[in-house]
Amino acid sequence: MSTSFAYLHTADGERLLEAEALVVVLSRGEIESGRVGHTIDRLMNLSDDPVLARKYEGRVHLVFAGYGSEPHQNATCRRFFRALTDQWPYWFHFLERREGSLRLALQLLVGVTEVHRRGTAPVAVVDVALFNTTVEGMLHGLAGIHHDLRIGADHTSRASSDVLRALRVRELV
After folding, report:
1. CA distance between the termini of the chain
2. Is the torsion defined by CA of 15, 16, 22, 23 positive or negative?
3. Three-state secondary structure along 10-72?
4. Residue 89 contacts by C-beta under 8 Å, 6 or more apart in sequence?
5. Nearest CA among 56, 37, 38 for reference residue 47
6. Dist. CA 156–CA 159, nearest whole Å
7. Per residue of the chain (173 residues), what is the pLDDT tens digit?
8. Using CA atoms, how far apart are residues 27 and 39, in angstroms rounded to an integer?
9. Which branch of life, at top level (predicted)?
10. For residue 137, how many other CB atoms are within 10 A of its CB?
11. What is the residue-wise DSSP string for 104-117?
12. Does residue 77 contact residue 31 with C-beta atoms inside 8 Å?
């Protein structure tokens, strides 16, 4: 059985209720324009609707169209995603935790540098203080949306643990 996806920028309300997962596609044109308003409006519709917010917990996939496989290495992508996150800090509630969206979000927010040495695998270098501050802020966003949706503290604690576990398991490179 395959998963049915909806796309945030094009799905109507009915499609959002039918789909099992959601894809947020950030296009090159949108990113290079630097205008986050349209995406923020769509994301707010998602987080403001208790049914959709619960339905898509851990089921949102993040895609950067037109940037190949390394959008986190592009300063314009990082600035755009930071601007989105500054206005909508709920990624830890919504992003899927197994296929790379959570990792990509952190790569974009903390700016991962890859160090290559001959004969060894690449190593990710990050500003640890920025990483910790970012994770703390994102966990605060997770707790905030759970508070707004009247989701209990036990669920928030489990969701936070799931996110932190996924971050430990996933490499940033």
Report:
1. 31
2. positive
3. CCCHHHHHHCCEEEEEEEHHHHHHCCCHHHHHHHHHHHHCHHHHHHCCCCEEEEEECCCCCHH
4. 137, 138, 140, 141, 144
5. 56
6. 5
7. 467 888 887 778 888 888 899 999 999 999 999 999 999 999 999 999 999 999 999 999 999 998 877 898 889 999 999 999 999 999 999 999 887 899 899 989 988 777 778 888 877 777 888 888 999 999 999 999 999 988 888 988 999 988 888 887 556 54
8. 10
9. Bacteria
10. 15
11. HHHHHHHT-EEE--
12. yes
C-alpha to C-alpha distance for 33 and 48, rounded to whole angstroms: 26
Domain that holds residue 109: 5-169
- Look at the chain and report how many structural domains it folds into: 1
Q: pTM for the complete prediction?
A: 0.85
Amino acid at 99: E
Residues 21 and 27 sit within 8 Å (Cβ to Cβ): no
Listed in sequence order, the residues at least 6 apart from 30 whose beta carbon sits closer than 8 Å to its beta carbon are 38, 39, 80
Rg (CA), the chain: 16
